[in-house]
Structure prediction request, 145 residues.
Amino acid sequence: MKEVLALAARLGVTVHVAHLPEPFRGFYDHERRRVVYDFSLTPIERACVLAHELGHAFYGHQGRDDPDAEAAADIYAAAVLIDPVRLAELEAIGLSEDAIAEELGVTEKLLRVFARQHVTRLHGVTYVRPRLGRGQFRHAARWAS
Prediction:
C-alpha cells in the first residue's frame, strides 16, 4: 500500500478515506485531484480501488459511467500492482487463480485484466510485456502442466 500511496503523491493526488454509500467503493475527483475510498474495504480491496482510481487520475478522466475509462483504469491498476516476475513464479508452481491473486495482493478481477493485457502463454511458457524485435519479452517462465 505504501507504494500506491507514493504513486498518488507523485501524481499530485491526495487520498482520503470515508464511509461511502453502497455500491460505491471509491471515486476520483478530478477538480480537487483527490481519491476517496470506502473505510470498510479489506487491505487488498483498498490497494486495488486506490490503484484503479489513480488510473483515472493518470489519464485525466472526468465524469462517470464511461466503460472505456473504467477498463483503462483497471489496466493501469493491474500494471501498477502486479509484479510480472512473481506472477510467472506463482504460475510455474501451479497455483490456482485465486491463490495467485491472494499471493500478489490483488483481486482476481485485476489478475484477469493483467493476464488479458500483458501476458502471452505459448508452449508451456508465460511471457509478460511483449515488445517487438530481439529480446521481445521482458519476462518468461515455464508454468506447470
About this structure: The helical segments are 2-10, 43-59, 67-81, 84-92, 97-104, 108-118.
